[in-house]
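Lab meeting prep.
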Amino acid sequence: MIVLHGIWNRTEAGKFHLWAEASNPAKTDSRRSTKLAGAQRPRLHPFALMHDEMLEEVGELLGGLPLQDAETDTLTMRLPSTAKGPLPSPELVLSQPMDNKQMAEFRWWYMVTAALDAGTALDFLLALPDRSPMGMAFGSDLRFWIETARFCLELLTRQCFVPTLHEVVQGRTATCRANWEIFLSPEDAERMQQLARQMPPICWACVPPEERNVSLLQNIVQHFLNQSADAFVRGLLSSMSLLPARRNSRQSAITFQEQWVRALSSTDATFTAPGDAIKQFSTEVHNWLNHLQTVDTGAAFRTCFRLDPPEEEDEQRMDWHISFHLQANDDRSLLVPAENVWTERSSTLTFLKRKFENPQERLLTDLGKASRLFPVIEESLKTAHPQRLELNTEQAYAFLRESAPLLEQSGFGVLVPPWWQKPNARVGVKLRVKPRVGTASNMSLMGLDSIVDYSWQIAIGDAMLSAREFEKLVNLKQPLIKVRGQWVELRPEQIEAAIAFFKKKQARKDMSLGDALRIGLGEGTAEMGLPVLDIEADGWIQDALGRLSQNVPLSDIEIPATFQGKLRPYQLKGVSWLAFLKEFGFGACLADSMGLGKTIQLITLLLHERNKLNPPATPPSPTLLICPMSIVGNWQKELQRFGPSLNVMIHYGPERLSDQAFTEEAEKHDVVITTYALALRDKEHLTAVEWENIVVDEAQNIKNETAKQTQAIKQLQARNKIALTGTPVENRLSELWSIMEFLNPQYLGPGQDFRKKFAIPIEKYHDKYSAETLKRLIQPFVLRRLKTDKAIIQDLPDKMEMKVFCNLT
């Protein structure tokens, strides 16, 4: 077993040291070990793996990152030790017991590491799985940096970073360094402080005791955030051209602004300039950055800005209003209008039994700071007692889109109309689907690839618009418009997409039921690039979408009389769910945890299918059951026990049938059981039979899409497909995609698209939106219940865990 560690070392650019601790220490001479342990100079950590050994052990965790090119380095750390060596990490399971009788003290040790730069370290930490693989554990230090990297990614996605300039003057020349640094709002700063307080001691074990202080932990975290942000933003900008090309080489010299921008967007972050000349530019940069400084969050109140839309619509003039208030920090619903502030003659304002000290001074000071973020506020400062600000529509939109987030990040309160936060206050389309005229009405012949009739209509908010109505709104050339009593945002890119939508609306294109379902469950946008606000359905499609989205409850089937047993309520729900999906031609994955009765639920379904044919007009086609060889006999016994009326055929062994003989014999039985290995070997024989159902038990056996066994099983044809598994996802989301591709081909799209849309954002960046979207997409076709859920089964005893120690010989 090994424990993987990660330490951030605060050099100038920062290095992330990756090292691994093994359970088998190297053999050394005991007398020499004692002597060296007593010395003060560092010695090699006996449990640490060497560089190549470590990379070989963690090869599966690399995720394609170029760690093989990581710099081989060493790291010295002060660790708890005895005379025999350093104490092992708590996560490490040793092959030999340690002598705990010796007194422990701190000593210096060094280990060989793989040193990663900030950008590579961020990618590596974000790519690590939540759980370590078998035979490996993540140290507390590595787990801490994983959480810190995720916090950094969140800040980057919210664009919480700013450009900075640092200069060092030596004589007449100044060396300037341009960096990107994290900008923290008061809430984010508090989160960073909480994170720093949770830092494990091993994370600062490389810092000498004399250099440690009260702000050490916070400085380490902030240094990692800044260096990671700089590497991330710089990496994105390095491939872009931010400055216009110079056509004439005789043009004037490059300005300081241009040098700064180039240094921010290239691999070389430094530039030189005359010391006296750079001072003015540096002062301008720092003054600009000071505008973003947060207000005092330790006070009992803060300044708040509330934006209100025009009370009445006026074609000649539409005035928006920003009113100024003082807002209590411990009760954000308590607002003191600026009018009350200016009528107070003492230094203490009393409002609703609350006291506000020096309110006039605080309000004026905050308005001055806020005017740097929203310059329109300067107009109100021309009056002695500023109370409110009038805006036109363009200014109101600029406040909502640009200034309001900056003011919030700087610690001010901002109140905007509730419709601004609603996702439907935008341009989109509404979809209407119905069964195609002339198609079969038999729902059992339907499926996700069934072609449906559909129609699109443009919508703004809740209002449906024609092309002429939309054109009139566009001609207003306003970013905020009022449509039938509702304010909505109209962006230029949305206008272009809507115009393209109307142009292409006449172009007919088939839509499958799977496409409509994905849109209804919130995946992607319409084919014209606009978001889908709503979907309506008619006929059996309405029934199917309603039950798939769980808006309409499923009705329980009647338990067949031929079933020899008793179903629990949750098992009856599972059988009814399987029957419903088959009715509409959808594949199903029954993923109940082990012991909840997936076997008898499937047997009940098979009996239910045959009971519906009473009297049977034509014998139903057989069901092919593919399972591991070790449980073939178990399936045969369970079928005989719970469904004795089912004729079962075992296709296994050297005497098994083939060619026409197999086809004829299979059609005489209700269930044919075979193994995964024979599904590949006898693919031609199995393909010749028209199967009613194909069931794969222990479906994780088809998780590898490129395996020949998986490809052979997916080529088998049946009216319905079912997967039984207790672990639909073991390691990677690609395993879930492979199972879903067997059940409902093309529903989750090609594997490469699935990886871009879901696997990478979820596994590497822990994208909650992508995770929720994927959950909505697969939820109709995956049913998973757990034994620990008391709502599922109440008569199971509580789980008992006992530690039993075995002596190894």
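Slide two material, second protein:
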Amino acid sequence: MTLNVVEARSSRDLRSFALTLGYTDELLADEFPVWLPGRIIRPDLVGFGSQPFNMNTATLVAQAVPEGDKAKRDLFNVAETLSAPAAVTLTEESLDVWWLGTGANEPSKLGTVLRNELCTSSFATSPAGRSLAPHALLQAKRGTVQPSLFPLDIRWIEQSRGHTENRLENLVTRSVVVAHDMLAGIGQSLPDRELARLVLAAFTLCFMQDRFNLSVGSSEWSVYLQTVHPHLYSWMSQLKAHERMVLADTINDLSSTVNLAALDPALLSGVYERSLVTDEERSGLGIVYTPADLARRMLANLPIEELPPDERRVLDPTCGSGTLLLAAHDRLRDLVSARVGEEERHRWLVGHLTGWDKDPFAVEVARLCLTINALPDGNGWHVEQADAFEQKVPDAERPTIIVGNPPWKAQRTGPTGSRLDLASMFLDWSLSALAPEGMLGMLLPGGWLTSDYSARSRRRVREDCEVLEVWRLPERTFRHGEAAPAILLAKKTKRVKRLYHIERRVIHRESLARLYMQGVADSTTLVQTTAAPGEKADREAAFVARPLTGRVSSSRWPEYLGDVARLRSGPTRHRGAQRGSGDYLLADSLSRTRYFSLVRRESCSPVRWPEDFDAKSSGNPDDYSAQKLLLTGKMRPDNPWSSRVRVDLLGVIPTDAYIMVIPQREQLPSNISVSDAISALTAICGSTFASAWIDERRSTRNIPPALFRDLPLPTGWFELAPLGRRLVQAAGDIDRLTLLVAEVDASIATLYGLDDIELDALRARYAGIVAPEGVVRFRDPPSTTAATPTVDALCTYGAVLDMTPSDIRLWAPGLTSDEGDAVPLPPRFPGSLLYAGADFSVRSDLDDLRHAEFQLHASAWKSPLLTVVDETGDYEAGEEEASGGFDDDTAVDLGPLTLSDADLNDDNLEPPSQ
């Protein structure tokens, strides 16, 4: 055979095998270009789960390989770059199927088919082959299901995407530097923003060229773009000769070294955020940029399906470079019937997405990203430079969906003299602008959940909205931001039917990928935010969950810490105060002192009191000379070990980073000395329970003394004094401390009456996290791979019957009893379904509701990705996939466009009476 004949036969065999797995010709691309470091590789075949073809939808790569490992290794690198979990290699004798999704150093071989048996092989109908169907792999990439026989590690997908992001970011940075040097070489220069605009234009041009195989010379690109995308590139008509030279040279350089066909458009938005905005600009504007995967998860958890199709109007009043708008675009697009043509769908989406931002360059990038995301019909987006506070939205045009990541800046003074942060002001504006029954998704500073200055804003949310979900995320969620964020998902309504919301909390930063892809957090808890009929409303009801200490908090106790001790923060020292003189000791080196230990003179410096301190914080000198506990008053909010203890018998002044706990002799029983009280309180405040008490009541770094002041003291608390003394004596001895803290926690559990459920929750919260004394008190940290339904899972429907603060009663035929079962809140359960009578679709293996996937009933039915399994185990397409659209009887006429929302009332599925 000639080489061309061999290649044609290999290509035919690979395509035939892919077709047996369920791919169609519309989901396969021959020689799809993939950019690897230093080169571009075009594998024989790439399979995708859906359009558009890019790294988000790639599921399988295939290549005819000669004997040897290099070609095979190249193919595996291509699969990793596309985060395609499956690969196929073809040799003269056989076809091998590989799985890369475990993240292991070497792929796993799933099976081998002899080449002369390709037409008769049963591999495609085996459990392994069925898991490689395009819809199954795409759902696995999105975290919806797991393959039946082999896991897909979400960290592998995150790392694959991260590698591409880093290479793109480095390439943009290099291009900017090269362009700057090029101009300097001819005695020219451009402002940073203008130079960045040219470089981004060059990247956009290359993206379009690579995606659509356009053949336009670098000198003709500006004319082409002004003709095809005038709303984006009219500024090119004003380019000077040296600017046109920079554009052309950058295009030529990129065209010769990279291919961006597989690029996720959201990456370009991210590159702007990370590469082209300085730290000074971020700080000055109070900007923290939204990760693309977080934006997608926010939009996925908003129940947009509850809105009629023609009323789904999205506004991002602080859109930045468009990350949330891109996620909203894709969310709305996926709800449009497959029967609607691309041009009509695009025209409808353009009319239902609006973005504003004060930064003109960010606005330009947002338009650009929306354009390339919607190519070839990418024009016309309503993204404008505007200050939301100066905009008045007519009632007829009020958005029904507002999403946003507003600036986080220092507090301003409100109209009544109260403190307001800028994020709360944007939230208030959004609530006013949002149409009744509209959806709200806001990314806020974590302190909004508990701080005094946001109390008014929280009250308004509670009064105007049903809270659906609250997410507490760790510090460094953002690449250029330390603050811990919170997510608020709510529905503006006066017709309250949801009395509870869901708190999803991510403690471990490595768990973020699991939340983004699977919707699973480290902890998922029911929180009651609305009083039931007949109950008195609590205006200060917590937005954060208290599953570990809530029962203790609601019980009556004989004493509280504030009853037996005075608590106050340490004073603030003058910046210009000199060290080395004075009659008082300042404990300014406590960070080098072990927890549970005594404060030593060598960790202190002489100071003058009150001369060296701010007048407002100088306080009572008797507090400083007293024997006391010193508790850490500043702690990262994502670290649940919030109570850290040292003992001061010297009488020192702590810094303002510490809280003094000063036992009051007159408040103690006559037979209890101050020394005994300090020892007993050392054990209590050093316990895991005390850390949980504080952790469940704060979402900022600062820990106010009031949180410790309200810590209940059980009857007989002073009997813990011997344990407390032993803790101090063992400070620094890890082996002794390990045994002692276990004894302390056991005694605390008995005194507070913690039940098995509370103890299990306590252990789970702190599992694998190093405690203040330097040991891990509880082993077995939460798994980084959350169990998800397999592709063979049962798909059925069900209903919510009722709920309590501890569980939810669900009914689903085949998964629960006929009367329904009360179960702990499943981690993937959506907050939008938290009301009696809510119906849902559920995908679950056997009776495992804990790891089931739940969706709004109509949303699940409409999804083209939903695949059900009939009694024979064969796949059946979802309604849209089978028919190409929805029932015309339920169509909503939108003029030039028809959308459908089906009414799913299955007469054979009736939940029991409530």
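Talking points for slide two:
The first strand starts at residue 28 and ends at 30.
The CA atoms of residues 467 and 490 lie 4 Å apart.
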